[in-house]
Specification:
- By secondary structure, this protein is α+β, with helices and mostly antiparallel strands.
- It folds into 2 domains: 168 residues, FAD/NAD(P)-binding domain (3-Layer(bba) Sandwich); 148 residues, 2-Layer Sandwich (D-Amino Acid Oxidase, Chain A, domain 2), CATH 3.30.9.
- The chain is built from 9 helices and 20 strands.
- A hairpin with an 8-residue loop joins strand 19 and strand 20.
Amino acid sequence: MQSANIVIIGAGVVGLAVAARISESNDGVFVFEKNGRYGQETSSHNSGVIHSGIHYPKDSLKAKLCVKGNAMLYDLCEKYQIAFKRLGKLTVAIDEEEVDELDRLMRAGTENDVEGLRFLDGEAVRNLEPNVAVEKALLSSSTGILEPDELMNHFYAQAHKNNVIFAMETEVMSISRGEDGYELAGVSVGDKFSVTAETVINCAGLCSDRIAAMAGFDVDRLGYKLHPCKGDYFRVAGKPLVKMLVYPVPKGPGLGIHLTPDLAGSIRLGPNAYYVDKIDYSVQSGEKEFREDVTRFVPKIRDCEIREDSSGIRPKLQGPKDGFKDFVIRHEADRGFFGFINLVGIESPGLTAAPAIGEYVAEILENEVKR
């Protein structure tokens, strides 16, 4: 049987960031990915937004890792010439109830040490974005966009340079604890395989709860059960309506249907948010829903052509009736799984947080596993 020092399960942007970071000081790192290429699921089906950190409670992992990851991403993009734009974002309110929500977001952002936040009245918003008609807005100047594939290419190249072994088309189907660590077995490029690993890092995204259950965790009791939540996107034809990102105040399980320019300036609408019981990337929403939602703060959208674009699925821990749920990133030694690190529910802002998550996991390895 083959042996490995560390096996990372999943090669989305988080698995790649973890691989790139921990391979700086650890040999024998393997990444198992069930798809034929890295980043084929959640990581390549999102808005590509570099979030600021205003949406998450103080001291949550989402808040801390988003704010840290935001700064790290801009540094990475500039150092390694990864395409990005620091556009800034307007979160807009059209009535008094929504203005109260803006105040809450400002408090959260201030508590989370988000820089560059300020309120704008309706006239100041129109001066920046003539097509946006609102009562008030919260400007977050550290919000931007990047191309997720380029970021993943960077992490993959860094990991590869550090001698990480990537095994694509490799699906883990069983995990058992043994005297020398963990035995992982499954199918790789059509053939059965088994390998022992001293350390396992579960970065399996939409399958992370299944991987945890496979290893012996009671995902229902621990709150690790995922609730896949889908979001569709539409694209606005013609001249771009806005230069910045424009979001409504958040309601429900997502952040609301927003306008996101891509790196070429074209505008996408979305995503919305609805729970699903299977992984299917076809667009299932109607154009009417998107147009009506956005008309509230960009009236000119009524006259625009809107086309189906794409969809994504979030690995949410928050179910339909739940409140806020934080990332799970923890070494499970206290539950009898020394050397097993679970990353579960890494939805938004996972892309922004990815380099900071890599640092966080590296610290866990250094301080708790390899000590």
